Sequence to fold (266 residues):
Amino acid sequence: MTDPRTDLPEPSLDALARIASTPRLLVALDFDGTLAPPVDDPEQARAVPEARAAVLALLGLPHTRVALVSGRALDSLEHVTDLPDKVLLIGSHGVEIRLDSPAELTLEPHELVQRDVLSDVLDQVADAVDDVWIEEKPAGFALHTRLATERNSRIAHLVALQEARAEVEDVKVRSGKDVLEFSVRSNTKGEAVEHLRQYTKATAVFYAGDDVTDEDAFVALGAGDFGLKSGAGETAAGHRVAGPAEVARVLAELARLRAAHEHQPA
Fold:
């Protein structure tokens, strides 16, 4: 049996109620496919209104921190989310971090050289295959194939992988939905969640995500945490909903439960 307020079955609702009562809660969220539905132009992505409202409600609660953990570059994440500075931001899978004070990313000289080589390699792939484009990131690049045919997407991925690995020693590669990311630094969303847990001194973590890269975060969760998978596919998350609209309902219920707990007499 599911609750229409959340689309979660009763065991998941029980777990949601438990995490809502934790002394210090960290709510960490992927953006694309989790708060926002997929779009052809990534810079046009926006959270569904109900998800944004739920995030703002959680931000207003005591002993509750909200973080966005994304593969996007930090500038892009700031642009598409347009949320108060109280929201902690992790960009580029953990390479970029904006906590309560800004932090700058500085690449080492050898990393700058590797990044330049990556740029040349991936630009050649994008120029040779229709409807493939490159997104620049501080420590690397993302090769987007959402608009390409299945054949062109497959060709672009194979050639990019082969050439990048041949030209750049120890290049880091991540696969996502219609995207292949190349970086000269290795960070995962799991490492980002652990960093956020320590920074916020959270006693429990709620994490929601939809993509392959979010699995690192789900694996990093402990027994008292709550992992929510958005959409289909194999997952290590303990709970699942269909998509961003349903994620929004779960977040709204989490905010309601936590607000009710905060107002209970001691």
